[in-house]
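User: Small ask, check this?
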Amino acid sequence: MDFDLSVLLIVLPFIFVGGFIDAIAGGGGIVGMIGFMLAGVPMHNILGTNKIQAMFGTGVATRNYVKNGSYKKEYIIFSVLGSLCGAFLGSSVALSIEQDTLAIIMTIALPIISLVSLSGFRGEKKETHYSRKKIYLLALSIGLGVGFYDGLIGPGAGTFYIIAFSLCGMSLLEANGNAKIVNLGSNISAGMWLLINGKVIVWLVIPCIIVNMVSNYLGSKLAINNGDKIVKPVIILVLILLFIKTIYEFL
């Protein structure tokens, strides 16, 4: 895809809004993907370019959450390992699927996942006393499952990480911190694999990286300062947007 200024003018505002939302509640890739689609970027290039720019933005947000201590350390290692493996497998499957077939899979899968997530999500911290073994199994399962989805489809993965970790008894702010760390791992794994396979548009990804880093920094600061009271509403908004977007494409 050759350089086109109009593509940048369409995509960058979506990347800024998406990065801001992603830092607060995950799922900002949905907004970014809409921008890429409106600009006419091919599906496989959307997956690759979106993953690389998200990797840098998520890195900035991750730094802020870790610096603030808003995460649960005992879940990190196994969930990151799971996400790396899951994202690699998911992106490998995505590369083997025709673009039209991949679009159909996304259209069917996203609203179903959104409905399931909304029906079971409460966003309330619960006191849990899991054994070390159960914590590791939960962490690995979350990393593998959401990581695979992240590599295969992508949009909403950060939100699904937050919901999964919150179901383990964390506050939404803690779940968000864990989600950012693990999502960074799956973004790196899937993004590098898609980059190696030539699915990243370099002239487009560089300005997207800059814009996304700025918006992720601002969004993560807002979330840390306001805690769960801002995270939960934005998570619900992301899931509703995800559902509406995919239903609209299906119709």
Observations:
- The radius of gyration is 17 Å.
- The chain has one domain: 5-250.
- The chain has a mean pLDDT of 82.
